[in-house]
Amino acid sequence: MTTVNEWRAAGSFFEHRGHRIFWREANNSGAPTLLLIHGFPTASWDWEKLWPDLVARYHVLTLDMIGFGFSDKPHFYDYRIMDQADIHDEFLGMRGVKEYHLLSHDYGDTVACELIVRDLENARRPRLLSVGFLNGGLFPETHHRLLFQSLLLSPIGSVVSLMTSKKGMAKNMRKVFGKYLPPDEETIDSIWALIKNNHGDRIMHKLIHYIPERIEHRERWVGGLQRTTVPIKLIGGMVDPISGAHMVAHYRELIPNANVTELAEVGHYPQLQAPGQVLKAYLEFRDEIARPPAPARVPSISHRADGKMPTRNWESPR
Questions:
Q1: What CATH code is carried by the domain that includes residue 26?
Q2: Helix, coil or strand: residue 226
Q3: What's the confidence (pLDDT) of residue 296?
Q4: How many domains does the chain contain in total?
Q5: Residue 131 pLDDT greater than 80, yes or no
Q6: Alpha carbon distance 197, 58 (integer Å)
Q7: What is the pLDDT of residues 187-215, one digit of tens each?
Q8: H/E element, 128
Q9: CB 182, CB 175: distance < 8 Å
């Protein structure tokens, strides 16, 4: 397991609107670019169990969004999904990326939806080649928020932020991980360290506004999912109480030709709970979309010597 301190030591910083943004990059030797986007309330460290295997195949980029992990967490800041998408756009430009694949989780799924829409709107931006989603609130109507999240959204949200504790966070994490694959103490310690860094526990009520944003921009973001022709894969932990089996079922109803892998005993954090299963499903998806389409079969006509109707032999074009 890569510790949070080891993760930070391997990264760098760039500036966005006067604030430092932590980022990491590995394998830039011409491999396809894969951008990883983390969720709430954690950080890019969430990908640490998948990192070595992904880096072996792809040019991998990730960052801690503003307000998360090792990035700055200014108190007087308007935290918005659109701004987080802007940060990723700046990041892609800074690294000279012309085309890329996406793999996202939770809050990051919503940022990914905005990037999908931007890809539809502007052909001159870096070309989006595919999207992989892990558990997240893709549809506001199926998002089952925790009591803690509702309290953060309430008029006493700032007080709830100040009262945020490791014990309370651990209780919520165990709930969303589910009974089959609970987080160990090292994972709990790491998540708490990421939240506490730069006093992030004091701005939780500001970060949580992505929930009403999903309602406000539902038509834009869900519409983008339905209109895009970019290949999409959903890998869903089914026992996740926030966006598990119920969200997956709704996804199948709304998304044409849904490509879904269901992880039966996995909760809200598949990349931490079942990294081997996530990796297998994601690599199979990438291999599938990289495979050239099967050639269409066309009829060839064999002429008969007796003058009767010719027969048709179905062949692949040469």
A1: 3.40.50.1820
A2: helix
A3: 59
A4: 1
A5: yes
A6: 29
A7: 999 999 999 999 999 999 999 999 999 99
A8: strand 127-133
A9: no
